[in-house]
Amino acid sequence: MKGFKYEDTVNRWGVFEAELMGPDEGNPFTEQSVHGVFNSSEETVECEGFYDGDGIYRIRFMPSFEGMYFFEITSTFTDKKTGSFFVLPARERNHGPVRIKDTWHMVYEDGTPYYSIGTTCYVWIHQPDELIEKTLQTLSKSAFNKIRMCIFPKHYDYNLGEPRSYPYEGTPVDSANITRENFGEYTGKTEGNSWDFERFHTPHFRHLEKCICELEKLGIEADLILMHPYDRWGFSCMGPEDDDRYLKYVTARFSAFHNVWWSLANEYDMMPAKTLDDWERFAGIICDNDPYQHMCSIHNCLRHYDYCRPWITHCSLQRNDLYKSSELVDEWREKYQKPVVMDELGYEGDIQHGWGNLTGEEMLRRFWEAACRGGYPGHGETYLHEKDILWWSHGGELHGESHKRFAFLLEILKQTPGSGLMPYPGIWDEICAVPQETVRREGVKDYYLFYYSFMRPSFREFYFDDDSQWSVRVLDTWNMTIEDRGIFRGKFRIELPARQYMAIQIRKVEG
Amino acid sequence: MKGFKYEDTVNRWGVFEAELMGPDEGNPFTEQSVHGVFNSSEETVECEGFYDGDGIYRIRFMPSFEGMYFFEITSTFTDKKTGSFFVLPARERNHGPVRIKDTWHMVYEDGTPYYSIGTTCYVWIHQPDELIEKTLQTLSKSAFNKIRMCIFPKHYDYNLGEPRSYPYEGTPVDSANITRENFGEYTGKTEGNSWDFERFHTPHFRHLEKCICELEKLGIEADLILMHPYDRWGFSCMGPEDDDRYLKYVTARFSAFHNVWWSLANEYDMMPAKTLDDWERFAGIICDNDPYQHMCSIHNCLRHYDYCRPWITHCSLQRNDLYKSSELVDEWREKYQKPVVMDELGYEGDIQHGWGNLTGEEMLRRFWEAACRGGYPGHGETYLHEKDILWWSHGGELHGESHKRFAFLLEILKQTPGSGLMPYPGIWDEICAVPQETVRREGVKDYYLFYYSFMRPSFREFYFDDDSQWSVRVLDTWNMTIEDRGIFRGKFRIELPARQYMAIQIRKVEG
C-alpha cells in the first residue's frame, strides 16, 4: 500500500509502528491527526499518532499480550488503514512496563520484582555523540535500572553551553557572553529567543527516542522529565496551549516504549508560572494519552506535591533536609501509601553547593537506609571536572565510590522473599527490614535484614523464638563482603567488626 | 572557742566553713539543725548547715565579694556563734559560678565567657582510688570544663559491680549472682536492700566533695545528677520525705562550691515513680536551699522537660533522634530561650547499643554543629574494655579520637567576639555562626564562622559588601590545622580541600 508501512510481527512489550505519508504543507503538527485502534482477544487500545517531518506520520503501539492483533488507523489526510500483525513472546530481558505491587513496591508486568536503583543525568541526551556513547558505556557497566533525564535542555551552574538540538524550530538567545558570574540573569523569560512553539524540531525527538531505545537494551527505565525550571530558552514558561500540545506530542511519540516513565517536572515548585491547576491538567493529558498508564510522578524541590493524587503512581522525592533523607522513607510510605522513590538523596561529589558534595560512604549509606526502609534510592554525582562534565547533568564517566557498590545492594535486595522490603516498626538503633508480605502475619518473620548505618556495634544479640533455626550472614556493605556465620537457635550473639556500614541478613531455615 | 572552728580568711568564691561540735546521740540528721547568716557591705546570705558524723556539724558559705564578712550561726544544740572573716581576691583560675548571659550563653561571674565542653562519667566517684586518680589525670589533660556525675551508684549494662560506698547507712541487696543476662531483673524495687534513709553515710559525701574539689582545681564544673533510674538499691524510689531530706542535705553540703551545677535527674522520664509535681517540688527545695542559685536543669530521655520553667537555667538535652542531634540546637534555642547544652549527643564507641557506637568523626561533627548553632556540646565514650571500664560511667582513660580535638574547638570558640555564637538564619548548605551581640544589628557582621560538617566543597564564594576588608582563615577541624588565606574584599572565592569537617573563619579587618 503506497505511503503506508508496518511490520507484521513484533515482540510482546515491543513497539509496533505504522508509517503513513501525508501532507507536509501548512502546519502538520496542528492541522493533521492520526488515530489508531488496536485489537486482540486480550485487549483493545486506542492511541494517537504524530508527525515526524518530511510528510511522514507515525503511530506506535505496545502490545501487552502475545498473539494476533488487528488495527484500524484513521487520519485527517488519508483513508482508513486496516491490517494485522502477530505478537511474539517478549524479548529476553524485556519484562514489560513497571507496575505497582502491594501498595509500596514495584514489579515488571511479567511479575519480576523491580528494585529501582536510579541515577540522574539530566541532559545526557543533549551532549555530543562521543559523550553520549561514553554515558551508555558507563551505564552498561553499572547497576542502574532507572535514569532521570530531561527532554528540554538545562541552564544552570556548570550547564552554560548549548544543547545539540532544540525541541522547537527557531533560534535561541545568543549565549556567547554567559559566564558563571552572570548566568543567573538568563532565565526562562530571557529576551532574544525566537521559537515557533507550534512546530516541533523532529530530529530532537528522534534523537531522544534513539536514546530511550539504547536504555531499553541495557534494561534501564527512562524517567522522562517533561518540564523543569533551569531554562534560558523559554521552554519553562510557554503558554497553556503550547504546554498541552507538547505533552500530547510527547505521549503520542513515546508511550509505546515499555521503559518510559513520566516525570511531570523536576522541582515543580521552582516554576512559579505553573499553578497547581496546570499540573493537574498536565497529568490529565498524560493519563488520557498514554494508554499503557506508565509510571508517573512529579518531583519536588522544597515542597512535596500531594502524592496522594490518583494519577501519581509513586513518590519521586528530593530530600528537604540537609541531614535526613532516606531516614524519612518510613514516614512517607505511611503518608502517601505509594512506592517511595528517593530520586534525589543529594549528590556524591565535591562542588561548592551543599547538595552536591557528599562522600561516597554517605551516598551508599543513604541507599541502604532507603532500601531497608522499603523505599528506592536514587544516585547522582557532581565531581568538579576540567571540562565541566558532571555525571548529574552531562553523563560521561563516574568518578565516585558509591556507584561501585550498588550491584551488591541490588543482589541482596533480589534475595528478598516476595516483592519488597518494609521497615520493621519501633526499632530505634538499627534499621530492620522484613518482607512486605509478612506484615500481614503476626509474630516472627522468615527473613530479616538488619542495617547498622553509621553505627559501629562490636556485636549484636538476637532472639526470635526458642525453636527455629536461623541462617546468619554478615554483610559489609562498603567492602562488599559476605560472611556466612552458620546456623543459630534461641538467643544468640553475632560478633561484628565495629565498623560502619555493616548489615546482618537472617533467614529462617526451613524444615 | 571550744567546739567551734573557722578560718579567718577565705578567697572570693572559695568555701568558708565553720565547724561546730554537737550531739551525736539520737539522730542528728533529723533532730538537729544549724543556720547561718553571712553579712558584708555587698550581700547578706542565709544558709543551712549539715551533720557530718562523729558529733561534727558544719556550715559552709561562698562569698561573692571581697572584703570583711560577719556571721551569726544558730543551732538547735548550742548558743549563737558570731564572728568575722576577710575575703581575699579569687584564686587564679576561679572565675566564680557560671551564670547566664544574653539569654543563650554563659559566663563566669567575673565576666569571662564560659564555653561549655562537657563530658559524662556517671559514676567515676564510685570507683576505687586508683581509677579515680586516672580519671583526674585524663581530665587534667583534656579540654573538658564540665562533667556530668551521679551522687547515687549506677546499675546498668556494664555497671553491675558495687560502688565503693553508699549514700545511706545500711546494707545492699546481695549482687553476687547478677549477670548481663539477668541484670534487668534487678531494679530500684529489688527486695533485699536494707537502708536507713534517715541516716546519711557521711564518708560517701565527704568523698564526693573531695572529688568536687579536685575538679575545681582543674577548672571543671561538677554537674551533679541528683537522681537517676538505673538503680537496684532503691534510691530511685524513696518516699517524698526521704527525697526531700536528701535534697536538703545535698544542697546544704555542696552549694558553697562554686563549680557545682544541679541536674535534678538523668532521664527523669524513665522514673515513673516520680510525678511532675515531685520534680517541681524538688526544684523548689533546691532553689530555696541554694543561696547562690547555681546552674540547674533536668535531663531527658525520650521527652523534653518543659525547659521554660523559671527554675531551669539551661536546657540539658539528650538527643531524641538517631540522626539529628546538634542540628536541632537552633530550634531549641528558639523554643526555650535558654542556653542549649547538648549533654548527650550519643557516645563515641563500639558497644552494641546504638547510642554508644559513634565514630570519633561523627562525635566531633556533632560538637561543631552544636557550637556553631550557638549551643554547647557534651561528650561521652563507650568503647568495649576488657575490665568493663567505660569512660561514660567509670572514667579512667579515653580511647577515642574526638576528645583530642576539643581543645582546638575551644580555642576557636574563645576567639568569638562577645559571649557566644548564634546561628545565622536561613542558610541551608553550611552552618554559619555569628556573634550573639550582632543579632541586634542589621546587615553585615564583623565575624563569621562557617562550618561545612559532612559536606566537601572544593571552594566557596563570599560576598558581604563592596568596601570592607576580610581576614580569612581555613580550619580543618579534624586535623586541627589553621591556614591563613590573607585579606579579601568584595566578592571572593576560597579554595577548600574537598574534605569533610572544614570550617572558614572570617573576620572584618578594622580601620
- The total beta strand count of chain A reads 31
**What is the percentage of strand-forming residues of chain A?**
25-35%
Distance between the termini of chain A: 65 Å
Q: From the structure provided, what is the oligomeric state, counting identical versus distinct chains?
A: homodimer
Number of helices of chain A: 9
The coarse silhouette of chain A is globular
pLDDT averaged over residues of chain A:
97
Strand count, sense and barrel status of the largest sheet of chain A are: 8 strands, parallel
Q: Biggest protein-protein interface?
A: A-B, 29 and 29 residues
Helix content of chain A: 10-25%
Strand order of the biggest β-sheet of chain A: 18-17-16-13-12-22-20-19
Structural class of chain A: alpha/beta
How does this model look, in words?
2 copies of one chain form a homodimer. The first copy, chain A, is an alpha/beta fold and 511 residues long. Helix content of chain A is 18%, strand content 30%. In chain A, strands 18-17-16-13-12-22-20-19 form an 8-stranded parallel β-sheet. In chain A, strands 24-25-26-31-28-29 form a 6-stranded antiparallel β-sheet, with helices on one face. In chain A, strands 2-9-8-4-5 form a 5-stranded mixed β-sheet, with no helix packed on it. In chain A, strand 6 and strand 7 form a beta hairpin. In chain A, helix 4 runs parallel beside helix 5. The longest helix of chain A has 16 residues. The radius of gyration of chain A is 24 Å and the shape is globular. The termini of chain A are far apart. The mean pLDDT of chain A is 97. At the A-B interface, strand 27 of A face strand 27 of B.
